[in-house]
Amino acid sequence: MENVKKLETLSQDKTLNLKQVYLDTQIQKVIDILNQELVGLKPVKKRIQEISALLVIDKLRQSLGFMVGNPGLHMSFTGSPGTGKTTVATRMGDILFKLGHSKKGHLLTVTRDDLVGQYIGHTAPKTKEVLKKAMGGLLFIDEAYYLYKPDNERDYGAEAIEILLQVMENQRDDLVIIFAGYKDRMEQFYASNPGLSSRISNHVDFPDYSSEELLIIGKMMLEEQQYQFSPTAETVFLDYIKKRREQPLFANARSIRNALDRARMRQANRNFDNSGRLLTKADLVTIMEQDITKSSVFSLT
Question: Where among 206, 235, 267 does a domain terminate?
Fold first, then answer.
């Protein structure tokens, strides 16, 4: 009955300025940075926007005295390497901090080796030490499926998972845990750990970038280092991307960064070979077509 009266009172109040409440949180600045940092990923950005919207509404409801349930912020990020999972996790930490759902908002990234010991009695202290460092922020566990090795009876990964489950349930206000890895392997991981899967409310899948998106990412990376493509080099680099994507061990933005590092080395070597003439500023900042076509990717076709 009390809740009904509260709703009736609210209906008589003046209209709430949700836009102003949103602006006051300053999370739009974080989302703007995320949009600048990452090309594409529309479904991922939409999910982050939805989570942010829910938390803002909860914040407004709480200010009016309404009950606010725990939103369940533990997450699963699935996708190929180099698709921006760590970057999104970092910005998610900023958003949760600004909304008061994280005391510090920092991100601690770990793998199995940081959590699991090699002998009896070693795993618990390792895992608890990591959790201690992560408290008040976000714990990002990359390639989380390596925590579970059912074919090895002497493996201690299950002990680490048990400790994580306890913290996820009992200290959800103090720590957000994000499990990350390849989608198919993560699905197997969750299938073998139903207690873990039930504690994760937000499953976010990161799609691979298109060739055109990877070209934009490459140009952004070059710009950060004060380099640029020549007009023909840009076209050739797009061709490089299309060929490289068909080869093994392609890692999206990571592979693009590696390719550009090698292109810059070829450019530097080319300038040294031409050291008999004076160099211009353009020579120092421009990646030419030949700096890309000398890649082994082209020799394989």
Answer: 206
CATH code of the domain covering residue 92: 3.40.50.300
Residue-number span of the structural domain to which 251 is assigned: 211-299
Answer whether 133's CB lies under 8 Å from 145's CB: no
Query: Using DSSP, how many helices (H) and how many strands (E) does the chain show?
Result: 16, 7
Q: What is the pTM of this model?
A: 0.86
Our count of domains for the chain comes to 2
* DSSP per position, 109-163: EE-HHHH--SSTTTHHHHHHHHHHHHTTSEEEETTGGGG--TT-TT--HHHHHHH
Asked whether 217 and 274 are in contact (CB, 8 A), the reply is no
Q: What is the pLDDT of residues 276-293, one digit of tens each?
A: 778 889 999 999 999 999
Nearest Cα neighbor of 138 from 183, 86, 186 is 86
63-93 pLDDT, tens digit each: 777 776 777 899 999 999 999 999 999 999 9
**285 and 148 assigned to the same domain:** no
Same domain? For 259 and 146 the reply is: no
CA angle 280, 286, 290 (to 5 degrees): 115
Burial 19-28 (b: 16+ CB within 10 A, else e): eeebeebebe
